[in-house]
Write a structure and sequence with these properties.
Elements (H helix, E strand, L loop, with lengths): L3 E7 L2 E13 L4 E5 L5 E3 L2 E7 L4 E6 L3
Parallel strand pairs: 1-6
Antiparallel strand pairs: 1-2, 2-3, 3-4, 5-6
Length: 64
Amino acid sequence: MCNIKVKLITGTQQQLLTDITHITFADDCIELHSFFEPVLTLSGYQPVTMDLLAGEVVLQQYKQ
């Protein structure tokens, strides 16, 4: 299977989400889909990097 990891950066904290199967980028939110959890909808985050070889996406909270 081709699941990816998503690293969420919020200020100085980082959280690693695993087993992500699909990411939807909308105008006002990002949706993370996985096999085992309900859809996680994030507001206030932006994509920073997408490393396809490593299977990792980094999302960072907007600076306010």
